[in-house]
Design goal:
Blueprint lengths: L1 H17 L8 E5 L4 H14 L7 E8 L8 H9 L4 E5 L2 H8 L5 H20 L3 E3 L4 H15 L8 E4 L4 E4 L7 H10 L16 H15 L3 H11 L16
Parallel strand pairs: 1-2, 1-4, 2-3, 4-6
Antiparallel strand pairs: 5-6
Helix pairs in contact: 1-2, 2-7, 4-5, 6-8, 6-9
Amino acid sequence: MDKLLNEFTGTVRRAVDDYDMIQAGDKVAVGVSGGKDSLLLLLALKHLQSFYPKPFELEAITIELGFEGMDFSPVAELCREKDIPYTCLKTDIKEIVFDVRKEDNPCSLCAKMRRGALNDAIRQRGINKLALGHHFDDAVETFMLSLLFEGRISCFRPVTYLDRSGVTQIRPLIYAGEQKIANLAQSLNLPVVENPCPQDKGSKRYEVKQLLKALGQDYPDMRSKVFGAMQRLPLPGWQPKENWRLNR
């Protein structure tokens, strides 16, 4: 298992180095949703912390949305085992979005409220970097979402500075594919917390994911080509320091 995590951490380090995501003295928090992506990111950054030439602090923060059946105690136990400070903040986001406002497009408001709660928690702790679990497939899907539904060439950036909070968002998983993450999370027996959100498979993102999956049957390298185009255009913030690299 150590070998598998070593290899994966190498993929994370390439992204961190290519986009200069971490500097010496940074206080980095991982936004842990309980999903496989954020949990594996947390372990990889903890492993990276042990040998990276730029020393940084690391902790984990969960914004609990209020859905029944989501038990984060195994996540807290994992953080104790790995000596990672962990904070789980309970919110009433689910109640506001689904029960009170009954939003037709709940994903947008939910995401906005989660970001607000997370930014508040970060400011209180003096954290300057927020690591998010968006991976290679998320980037390609977001690019296609913007293209197909908004008519824009756009995507989130690997590194984003937020003026209002003074926090920099980093996405160290952008070179890691979703299937690779899923396989490793299963091999490491990570305590994944399933998301019971009713919109999980009813969103535009899910539609794009299914579209790309279907196209990938005939064009297996399509996602890699889209990702490469994003870096070569380049989209704002997507040009790496050196020649772009990809290890899915």
